[in-house]
Write a structure and sequence with these properties.
This protein is α/β, with parallel strands linked by helices. Helices cover 19% and strands 34% of the residues. It has helices at 14-23, 56-67, 91-103, 116-125, 135-138, and strands at residues 7-10, 31-35, 38-42, 78-85, 106-113, 128-131, 149-154, 163-166, 168-172, 181-184, 188-194, 197-200, 210-215, 219-222, 225-228, 240-245, 248-253. The strands form 2 sheets. The chain has an 11-stranded mixed beta sheet, with helices on one face. A 6-stranded mixed beta sheet has the order 7-9-11-13-16-17, covered by helices on one side. Strand 2 (31-35) and strand 3 form a beta hairpin. Helix 3 (91-103) packs across helix 4 (116-125). It is elongated, with a radius of gyration of 21 Å.
Amino acid sequence: MNSDLPVDLSLATPVSIAQSAVDGSAVPQVRFKGEGGRLLLLLPPETDNPSSGATWSEIWQQLKNRLNAGERFWQPNTPVHLMVRDRLLDSRQLQDIADALADAQLQLKRVYTSRRQTAVAAATTGFSVEQQSSLTQLNQPEEAGQALAEPLYIQTTLRSGVEVRHPGTVVVMGDVNPGSSIVADGDVLVWGALRGVAQAGAAGNTRCLIMALRLDPTQIRIADFVARAPEHPPSQYHPEVAYVAVEGIRITKAAEFSRDRVLS
């Protein structure tokens, strides 16, 4: 089957079928969906009623059964985008999903979630992650000056190939290595060396900042302004702040920085 065609397959386990026959309720299903050469893995959302939602054990069993099924509509090494939505997953559960996908010759490419705890777990485990607003917020038009999400704190080094997207400020207690990137609607604060790509104010806010103990990026962006690292790195590094001034992105020592310099 051509993986470029939209395909939506739900998995029904014998347990879920039996339960539905007894109480007339359907257990939410794990779903695979082929879309434009990539594979979406959609987990059922959390519910306020535990009896009507799928537990982690049910989700895990559904996923394993689907991956072990005889007929597979995906090609080997197809990238998988995990749509977690509002379900809370920890690092171990995310790694279990990645390992199960790898056993089926699939690669977990990115995690999409509306839960800050899950986003932190994904980044800490080494997966690219995008924290999204809730569905109700996504269906509403954006308003100027809309409040940012709570800051996302990541206590690990971002390795090459990892991308973090967050609708607020991102704080990294570690390094941002070359080949990794951060895209934040708020500020980007790196308590370490920033050697990858960082974008602050991704929604267009020019008052956002990028700050690092060692600012040696591949590229930095603030709103629509772009700057690259100098060809000749400095002989000595200091904590620095990148901000937007009238002439574009400027970089100054953190000890000498004042918000009054920022372009309004």
